[in-house]
From TrEMBL:
<dbReference type="InterPro" id="IPR003594">
    <property type="entry name" value="HATPase_dom"/>
</dbReference>
<feature type="transmembrane region" description="Helical">
    <location>
        <begin position="257"/>
        <end position="278"/>
    </location>
</feature>
<dbReference type="GO" id="GO:0000155">
    <property type="term" value="F:phosphorelay sensor kinase activity"/>
</dbReference>
<feature type="transmembrane region" description="Helical">
    <location>
        <begin position="224"/>
        <end position="245"/>
    </location>
</feature>
<dbReference type="InterPro" id="IPR036097">
    <property type="entry name" value="HisK_dim/P_sf"/>
</dbReference>
<dbReference type="InterPro" id="IPR050398">
    <property type="entry name" value="HssS/ArlS-like"/>
</dbReference>
<dbReference type="InterPro" id="IPR005467">
    <property type="entry name" value="His_kinase_dom"/>
</dbReference>
<keyword id="KW-0808">Transferase</keyword>
<feature type="transmembrane region" description="Helical">
    <location>
        <begin position="284"/>
        <end position="303"/>
    </location>
</feature>
<keyword id="KW-0812">Transmembrane</keyword>
<keyword id="KW-0472">Membrane</keyword>
<dbReference type="InterPro" id="IPR036890">
    <property type="entry name" value="HATPase_C_sf"/>
</dbReference>
<dbReference type="GO" id="GO:0005524">
    <property type="term" value="F:ATP binding"/>
</dbReference>
<keyword id="KW-0067">ATP-binding</keyword>
<dbReference type="InterPro" id="IPR003661">
    <property type="entry name" value="HisK_dim/P_dom"/>
</dbReference>
<keyword id="KW-0902">Two-component regulatory system</keyword>
<keyword id="KW-0597">Phosphoprotein</keyword>
Length: 672
């Protein structure tokens, strides 16, 4: 099923299917998000505080304190250097140590609570900063690296974390220099002039009520409960919806629906989604988006990989633009396409120069990488536009040459081949017009040849049909002139002359009727005609011929059926058709006449007594005879008269030939 907006609105089942897919995507995202929280924060160990002590939330809190203690010393050196670049850093910082020591104690207790203890050794001045009674780092470690504490030990840029005396891997910066932007041009001197400090940090697990870690611990326990419940609930709901969608719609059909919908998304939107996912891939939401994006790509590729990248906003705009071009003069269309090619080159070149200018002026700021990407894309597109403009110019010259050669061929009278230009040719309309002209010329030539052939056959047939009775009349008149004829013989000759004269009269009348019907010069007298009565009346007129040929007429007629038509002409039509069937039916067979009320319509079927090696079009030609030897009576005008009269009355007449089966049908659905 091709999914369109109209289909979605009108098909409730399809709408419910799509809504169910959207619900599954949302619940999947919810389940993965909560599952990630459960795993990272070890919510499955929510009872007791051990899970919290190894959770990512606790690690983030430790990292914040760790970074603050480390950066405090680095920032002292930075302030001294910024105030006087020539000052003795170590000596000046050492003189400021009492002030720093007081600030550290006040900030740590005020911001993080009394459960936090620290020991910082400035390896440049050997000055210690601590809020504990430990005299050395080894004494501090001995006092706090035990059960009931989290202990962080950083020496020479190597950080190790212990929880309850056991080594744990937590989210704490392992390289102290990462906590301070030492790679900034203004701070790079710190790498060579300042040794990293030794930082020891201890946190008592008896968190103070209302303190920094207590609040975090309470939030963690609440989140752990809700994230676990959310994960379990969403997982069961996701499983339930998958079972429903499998039973009601089928997995394969669901994948096809996802593939169709995703294939209808513009390529530009897909690229933007991919760029957004790439920029946020490190986050859990970015990861979920990446999983769903790749899944939708897979469904789209499985459904129709050829159109995966074909639906584009650019193409849509160009289609609208081209549709508007249809009503423009040909010269305007060609001019517009050429201007578009030049415009692409100018615009891409302008964007390229602007991006270069912004970088050269140093105002790119945080968008330098974006500008670099724009430069690369614009340069590639500029090369593409130049190549396309060049190739289209070369192709246009070749197309003009092809058009010239083709018109030359037409001028020489060769109409057997068409001209074919590429789909994106500027001169595609000329191709259509020339091919249409060629077809019209060929049809006109064929019609002319056919007309000449028909004229020749008409002259031959009319000559034959006129000559035969005229010869008889002339011969019998000559006999009556030259012989002393007895009365009884003269009477016989007169009867023959009368028969031949009537035959000539009938031929002239038939030709006259066809001529008037073709020109529309017949006045119709339409009335309500009972087809059932008219069929029975026509059959009765040929009862003798039917018996002579040992034929059986099977009439399948419903109740009385009325049509509004000219009774005389319609009767002539039925008489000619029935006479034709009687004359050319195989002896001992049946003729079927069916009158259907719906329409209504009349069908006459018979089996031919000769091989019908002609088409339905050929038998409808004037003076065409089924017996080409012309042994049977008639002029070959019967079906032609039927065709002329039915066309005049708005009745559809058709002939079908299937081997020896001949079928004539009158359809009154267009008759008024």
């Amino acid at each position: 099923m091709d999914i369109k907006l109209k289909n979605i609105k009108e098909n409730k089942s399809l709408l419910n299917h799509i809504l169910l897919i959207i619900a599954i995507f949302i619940i999947f995202s919810f389940a993965v998000n909560n599952g990630n929280k459960v795993i990272l924060n070890k919510s499955y160990q929510m009872f007791g505080n051990h899970a919290y002590l190894t959770s990512s939330d606790y690690g983030y809190k430790l990292d914040e304190i760790h970074a603050y203690l480390n950066n405090a010393l680095y920032r002292e050196y930075q302030e001294v250097h910024d105030g006087d670049p020539k000052a003795d850093l170590q000596k000046t910082v050492a003189s400021m140590s009492p002030k720093l020591r007081g600030e550290l104690k006040a900030n740590v207790i005020g911001s993080y609570g009394p459960e936090v203890s620290y020991f910082i050794m400035d390896n440049n001045t050997d000055i210690v900063y601590s809020n504990s009674g430990a005299k050395s780092d080894s004494e501090f470690e001995k006092e706090y690296n035990k059960d009931g504490y989290t202990f962080i030990n950083t020496r020479s840029n190597v950080t190790t974390t212990y929880v309850n005396g056991k080594k744990e891997l937590l989210n704490v910066s392992y390289n102290l220099t990462n906590n301070f932007d030492m790679y900034d041009d203004n701070n790079s001197y710190l790498q060579t002039k300042v040794l990293p400090p030794t930082v020891l940090l201890a946190v008592n697990h008896d968190f103070t009520a209302g303190g920094y870690f207590k609040d975090s611990y309470d939030v963690y326990k609440s989140d752990a409960v809700w994230s676990t419940i959310g994960f379990v609930f969403s997982s069961f709901l996701l499983l339930y919806l998958l079972i429903i969608i499998k039973k009601k719609y089928g997995i394969r059909e669901t994948l096809d629906v996802i593939g169709q919908i995703f294939n209808k998304v513009f390529l530009e939107i897909k690229l933007f989604m991919a760029y957004f996912i790439y920029g946020n891939f490190s986050s859990i939401n970015g990861t979920i988006a990446a999983i769903l994006f790749i899944f939708c790509l897979y469904c789209a590729a499985m459904y129709d990989n050829e159109n995966l990248l074909n639906v584009s906003l650019y193409k849509k705009v160009m289609e609208i633009y081209k549709s508007n071009q249809v009503f423009k003069p040909f010269s305007k269309k060609v001019q517009s396409r050429m201007v578009n090619g030049i415009t692409r080159c100018v615009v891409s070149g302008g964007i390229l120069m602007l991006a270069f200018l912004l970088i050269a002026m140093g105002i790119s700021g945080p968008y330098e990488q974006l500008y670099a990407l724009i430069i690369v894309v614009s340069f590639i597109y500029l090369l593409y536009s130049i190549f396309r403009l060049y190739s289209s110019s070369i192709k246009s010259v070749k197309d003009i040459e092809d058009v010239y050669n083709y018109t030359e061929t037409l001028g020489l009278g060769h109409f057997n081949e068409n001209i074919y230009l590429s789909d994106n040719s500027y001169f595609k309309e000329i191709e259509y017009n020339l091919n249409a002209l060629n077809e019209h010329i060929k049809e006109a030539v064929e019609e002319q040849v056919k007309s000449e052939k028909m004229k020749s056959e008409l002259v031959t047939n009319v000559s034959h049909d006129l000559k035969t009775p005229l010869t008889s009349i002339i011969n019998y008149v000559d006999l009556m002139k030259r012989e002393d004829i007895k009365p009884e013989i003269a009477k016989e000759y007169l009867e023959i002359l009368d028969s031949k004269s009537q035959k000539l009269k009938k031929l002239v009348e038939d030709i006259f009727d066809i001529s008037k019907a073709t020109s529309g010069n017949i006045e119709l007298h339409n009335t309500n005609i009972n087809l059932k009565s008219l069929i029975n009346q026509s059959i009765s007129e040929f009862s003798d011929s039917i018996n002579e040929n040992d034929l059986e007429v099977r009439v399948n007629v419903d109740d009385d059926v009325y049509v509004y038509a000219d009774g005389e002409r319609l009767g002539r039509v039925l008489e000619n058709l029935i006479q034709n069937s009687v004359k050319y039916s195989l002896k001992g067979t049946r003729i079927y006449i069916d009158l259907e009320k719906d329409g209504p319509s009349i069908t006459i079927i018979n089996i031919s007594n000769y091989e019908m090696d002609f088409t339905s079009d050929e038998i409808l030609t004037r003076f065409a005879r089924a017996d080409k030897a012309r042994d049977l009576e008639g002029f070959g005008l019967g079906l032609s008269i039927v065709q002329s009269f039915t066309g005049l009355m708005g009745i559809d007449f058709s002939v079908t030939i299937d081997k020896d089966l001949f079928k004539a049908r009158l359809d009154f659905k267009n008759n008024k």
